[in-house]
Amino acid sequence: MFNLALSSLPAYFFQLFQIPFRHFICVKLTSYSASILRP
């Protein structure tokens, strides 16, 4: 039981942080490309 919970924990955290992390990456990419496009 503990082993199953231990193996499913990373997947749970990945699912939890997937949307904010992707949003963070998108924001970083947009600001980076914007700073490149207009000096």
- Overall geometry comes to rod-shaped
Total number of beta strands: 0
Percent helix, as a range, is over 70%
Low-confidence stretches: none
Q: Please describe the biggest sheet, giving its number of strands, its sense, and whether it closes into a barrel.
A: none
Q: First CA to last CA: what distance?
A: 56 Å
Number of domains: 1
How much is the average pLDDT? 82
Structural class computed from helices and strand pairing: mainly alpha
Order of helices and strands: H
Oligomer category: single chain
Strand content: under 5%
What is Rg? 17 Å
Number of helical runs? 1
Keyphrases for this structure?
39 residues, mainly alpha, 1 helix, 0% strand
What does this structure look like?
- This protein has 39 residues and is an all-alpha fold.
- It has one domain (1-39).
- The chain is built from 1 helix and no strands.
- The chain is rod-shaped.
- The chain starts with a helix and ends with a helix.
In short:
This protein is an all-alpha fold and 39 residues long. The protein is built from one helix and no strands. The chain has one helix spanning 2-37.
